Amino acid sequence: MLYFWSMLKQILTSKKLYLSILGLVIFGISALLLFDKLIMPSYTNYHEGLTVPDLTRVTLKEAETKLTSIGLRYEIADRRANSAFPADYVIDQQPAANTIVKPNRKVYLTVNTEVKPVVVVPNVVSLSLRNAQIQLQNYGLEIGAISYESGRFKSVIRQSITEGDTVAKGTTIDLVISDGLGNKIVQIPEIIGLRLPQAQLKLREAGLRIGEIRFRPAKDVVANTVLDFSPKVTEITEGETLDLIISESFNAVEELESGVVIDSTGTPIPQKAPK
Questions:
Q1: Of 21, 111, 174, 193, which has the fewest beta carbons less than 10 angstroms from its beta carbon?
Q2: CATH 3.40.50.1170 for domain 185-272
Q3: 185-272 has the same fold as 118-178
């Protein structure tokens, strides 16, 4: 037992032990620094960086030469038609110019194409101006000049390019819109004494519209019968509006209608206004 403690004391007091430990520590630190400062940067190209050149407004061939000469690759991400550039010119890039990237990085290019995408022209005749605009925009077409002509209903009368034609995307289409007024004088049909649906039909056939509808209690008259209209004329411009007075049950409370809604067949539907 005494021999064991004697040997242990000799080892712990030995300078060689401490020198060996110090050597191992120094070696470990040196190896770690070597790995961090030399091996890893060399493996990951940490200290290497390439500046992406500006490739816009040059040909695809020039862009390829610029990239490969500095160790970068490229891929055509998209082709678009742009009249400001010749065909096969680069019009966009990602990453952007002057970005620092690692070697062998791929740069994505958008290249101008001479062939413009085409679309089939939709039919917008009979649509309202707003709906026609939405329809054309959905097809990638532009609204051009808008002119107006007399007509019964406010809708598209003509379009400058025929439905079904194939045109380049972005083509401009001119529209002719009805102003809702005819260009002739029409006779107001005999509607007093008619039920409202019959009067509506006669007025629509004459090219006239129904405006305000007022209900008036009337004795000995079938409800929903036309009692009167205004303006009190016999002739009027096609497309103009007539206000109607309609009978209701004598005990009913008078109500005011503030116009009509035109259904898909062109039939005016009275809409009651709040009291």
A1: 21
A2: no
A3: yes
Q: What is the mean pLDDT of residues 39-43?
A: 54
Query: What is the CATH class of 118-178?
Result: alpha beta
The answer to whether domain 50-112 has CATH 3.30.10.20 is yes
Q: Among 28-37, 110-119, 136-145, 186-195, which stretch is predicted with the lowest mean pLDDT?
A: 28-37
Instruction: Count Cα atoms within 13 angstroms, Cβ side, for 136.
Output: 28
Q: In this predicted model, what pLDDT tens digit does every residue of 161-219 receive, in sequence order? A: 999 999 988 899 999 988 766 667 889 999 999 999 999 999 988 888 888 999 999 88
